[in-house]
Amino acid sequence: SAEGGPKITVTNPDIRAIQMAKAALYSGARLLMDKFGVEKVDRVVLAGAFGAHISPKHALVLGMIPDVPFDRVTSAGNAAGSGARIALIDTAQRAAIEQTVRQIEKIETAIEPRFQEHFVNASAIPNSDDPFTTLKSAVALPNVNFNTGGGDSASAGRRRRRR
Question: Residue 46: is its pLDDT beyond 90?
Answer without folding.
Answer: yes
